[in-house]
Amino acid sequence: MKINKKVISTILAATLVAGVLTGCGNNKEASTTENTSKKETLADTKAQLSSPKYDFEKEYAFGDFNRHSNADMDRQNGVDTFEDKEIVFKDISYDQLMNLMQQEGNFLIQLSGSWCHNSRAMGPSVNEFAKKYGIDTIYSYDFNVDNGDDGSMFVRMTNGKDTVGAKYNYMYGEMVSRFLTNLDDWIEYPSDSDTAISYTNADGKEVTVGRLQQPIMFLYNKDNVKDNSGKGVARGKFPVVYAFEQMVERDEKGLYVKETDAEGNEVLDKEGKPVRKYVTEEYRKNLLKIFDYIKNNKIELAHYDKEQYIKDAFNSYGKEIFKADEKVNIYPITYRQLEWLTDQDGNSLIMMGGPGSEKTRSIISTVNQYAVKNNVRVYMYDPQIDGAYTTDKWGYKQTTNILEENSPIVHMYKNLIDRHLTNLEGTRTMEDGTTIIDAPYFFEFNKDAKDEDGFIAPIAAFSEMPYTSNPEARYSIGKEKNLTACKESILTVMQKYGELTGVKIQDLK
After folding, report:
1. Which one-letter DSSP state was computed for residue 331?
2. Virtual CA dihedral for 330, 332, 336, 342, nearest 10 degrees?
3. How far is it, in rounded angstroms, from Cα 71 to Cα 95?
4. Distance from the Cα of residue 364 to its chain's centroid
5. Span 196-253, pLDDT tens digits
6. Cβ contacts of residue 222 below 8 Å, gap of 6+?
7. How many CB atoms within 10 Å of residue 387?
8. What's the rounded Cα separation, in Å, for the pair 129 and 292?
9. Is 348 helix (H, G, I), strand (E, B) or coil?
10. Rounded Cα–Cα distance for residues 175 and 62 (Å)
11. How many CA atoms lie within 13 A of 5 on its CB side?
């Protein structure tokens, strides 16, 4: 199949002409033209990854966890984490977690990640018990922000650690200080232990909190006043209603820990490998207690879906962007989900941007209108790893944006380009030649697209949108010509998706 690559920019010209702008555009006054200098061929796939019928969360959890577990021969002997796709976990971002923890009701939350062997060991039993007890959703967040196997972006680190993740340890610290105020009652390493976590808050003061281990699962209710830990510590509220934290490994024989001698040293077999002590029955019995607590106390679990999060987050900046009853087809995903999505066969609509970006707030409603009109899903990855929560809500100064050249975490952005977005184009470059893009950046993606020379060119169409809600600005979305250009660029990206999938795409008119 031959396709015309559509390179779009909505940087406005004084005179607007329908079409696509060559080379992603610049700030010069120029007419919009179409770039037909390159042709691409596409592998024979029309999979609609942006169809609302595509069960993204289940597909992701099944695929990503099993990919990691299959590769772990040393600990897991390559055994699958999940045997089927009936999985209850819903991956959420940091700011989604912060929003969730301020909602009314009871929520089951698990802090874990597919990179973590202990998380992969825990997952199957949690999933099994949840389905047995009629629980359809457990919210999952990973403090290893980039899901990397080296753990360098693990933000649950104490001051003084020489890792990039340690620079952002206040993300972990603030969660505990603000929301999990009785966490000490449930974990092995509370705030008075030698391995507690110290972080520096926005006021420059050092704060020490307990160090939870991943994975940990807990029942959360911000208004709970009952202490179930048995520790008897006087507190006003006990938001961690019940918790389970126990580290094990898993292979085809079951759940195990490494055998140790009386002095705590690992016991080795004749081949020099650690002896595995299987604790399956004991572990599952302990894990079951949290589910029995929910059942015996007739606790109803609440839901905080991604549609509601989008409304809350974008409306939190003082202007109602989404109405309470409005349908939302913008679907937020995490960094690890974005990497997984861009490894899949088929076509998807993706936008880099988030509620903390004023430019994204200015166009998100229009993007959503097109998505709803055409019954497609737009995946949104926020390049600010905290959704701008620590800066906009709590006053921290350090950038959390992976798109900024001097950001401590710009390597996450470069990794996306090197591994997935190999033909990314933008208006500027870094000193090392890396393309710089600005959010919001909307594109159609198919990993199998290639250019005429046979090189991978997975971004089939894109739009880099410079609009703002500022009525005095040159690119004010309130100006008719700007809104028209914005709509045309969104439509062109969606039309490319339609061309590659066979979906008929309609304009808003």
Report:
1. E
2. 10
3. 31
4. 18
5. 999 999 999 999 999 999 999 999 999 999 999 999 899 999 999 999 999 999 999 9
6. 101, 102, 103, 104, 179, 237, 239
7. 26
8. 10
9. strand
10. 28
11. 26
